[in-house]
Amino acid sequence: MDNRASIFEPRVTSGPYDDPDAASDNINGTLVNPFGGKSHKEMNDLIDAFMEKTKIDEIYSEHIRKGAFLAQDSEAFHDLRVDGLQLKQEERAALLLEDPKTGNKWNQPWILYALVGCCSLGAAVQGWDEV
Predict the structure, then answer these.
(1) Which long-range contacts (CB under 8 A, 24 or more apart) does 87-91 make?
(2) Where residue 131 falls among pLDDT bands split at 50, 70, 90?
(3) CB–CB of 36/15 below 8 Å?
(4) What is the DSSP letter of 99?
(5) Run of H or E residues at 36
(6) Number of helices (H) and strands (E), helices first, in the chain?
(7) Is 3 exposed, middle or buried (0-12, 13-18, 19+ CB in 10 A)?
(8) Interior CA angle at 98 toward 92 and 99, to 5°?
(9) Residue 8: pLDDT band by 50, 70, 90 thresholds?
(10) For residue 54, how many C-alpha atoms fall within 13 Å in the half-sphere facing its CB?
(11) What are 36-89's pLDDT values in tens digits?
């Protein structure tokens, strides 16, 4: 077995959520941000293990790395980074639209509203059939 960290195996670190006795006390913190408290090296190891395990093409590596670091900290790209990862202008604009303070939660693709409507009608018909 490979000695690198795996996202599918228990991790052995000394973060605030790694104590099994404290896990039940702060399970919400772990669920909210499973990457919280991870070092840059640990994050890169997890990303590499994920990429290798899932066999995702290398062309998506940069996007997955950006997403993982944003999942860890939403302000990860506000300052210059030592690893050279930078958000493009379009990515920054998309993140601003997702931000509850600056974006509009009702600005979604039309097809999403159509999907919600179709699913709602399907649920109503199923409910009528069960009566």
Answers:
(1) 91/66
(2) confident
(3) yes
(4) S
(5) none
(6) 6, 0
(7) exposed
(8) 90
(9) very low
(10) 15
(11) 888 889 999 999 999 999 998 888 888 999 989 888 888 888 887 778 788 889
Angle between helices 40-54 and 61-72 (to 10 degrees): 130
Pairwise CA distance, residues 6 & 34, whole Å: 14
Of 56 and 6, which is predicted with more confidence? 56
Query: Which residue, chain included where needed, has tokens 């974006």?
Result: 103
pTM of the model: 0.57
> Using one digit for the tens of pLDDT, what is the confidence trace for 94-118?
888 888 888 887 888 899 999 999 9
CA 9 to each of CA 17, 32, 46: distance values in angstroms, whole numbers, following the listed order: 16, 19, 11
Identity of the residue numbered 43? M
Q: Tokens for 22?
A: 């404290």
Measured between alpha carbons, how far is 88 from 18 in angstroms, rounded to an integer? Answer: 35
Buried b (16+ CB within 10 A) or exposed e, 30-48: beeeeeebbeeebbbbbbe
